[in-house]
Amino acid sequence: MKLDCVIMAWALYLFLVMFWAAPMPLKLFPTPVLRATPSAEPQEGSPVTLNCQTKLPLQRSATRLLFSFYKDDRAVRSRDLSPEFQIPTASEEHSGSYWCEAATKDNQLLKRSLQLEIRVQRLSSTAASPTLTSAPQKPAASETASTEPPGPLPPPTTPSSEDPCLSSPLVVPDPHLHHQMGILLKHVQEVRVLLGHLVIELRDLSGHRKPETTNAPAK
């Protein structure tokens, strides 16, 4: 009975030793994630880098993984130690669905990432074609002659003292003064009329007094 207990104890001990000494399987590393740098929609002619990101456990950090990259069900790079795939100059033919694959050297463990859509943006015709600047044209001889500044103007002519029209200034009648003169002439005419009536009355009075003076001595 005691022998059976000792054998079972040794068997349990050996099992525990073998369990702790066994290597940890690599299936614990996460599924890789494919990322594009700087963008999944690069401009035509710009570089693009695809990175297959995953991380090994700390106990197996020395283990090497091999990375493969695929585009539209075709391998563009197979089983390489670098987790990056570079496209130096992106063009329309690089557009498509990409995914990556991380695997051990013995292919016992293999994991694929989700698909990443790469869409290369075409450059517009205005941005692609250089702008042409027209060179300045030289002006013709006639144009250069016409653009020259004019010469000095002749001095203005001064009026001569011999010309009677230019020697005396023009006198412009004052309308207010003309109106006042008209009113004055009207008053003068009215005074003349009054004087005429006064003279007639004086003559009449003098005619009535003369007979009285002549008849007085006859009495």
From TrEMBL:
- Pro residues bias (residue ranges): 149-158
Q: Does the keyword Repeat apply?
A: yes
Q: Which stretches are tagged as biased composition: Low complexity?
A: 127-136
Keyword annotations for this protein, in alphabetical order, are: Disulfide bond, Immunoglobulin domain, Repeat, Signal
Pfam families named in the record: Ig_2 (PF13895)
Q: Which InterPro entries match?
A: Ig-like_dom, Ig-like_dom_sf, Ig-like_fold, Ig_Fc_receptor, Ig_sub
- GO molecular function: any one? transmembrane signaling receptor activity
- Extract the SUPFAM superfamilies matched here: Immunoglobulin
Record region (Disordered) = 127-171
Q: What are the annotated GO cellular component locations? A: external side of plasma membrane
What is a biological process (GO) this protein takes part in? immune response
Domain Ig-like per the UniProt entry, residue ranges: 30-117
Record's protein name? Fc receptor-like A isoform X2
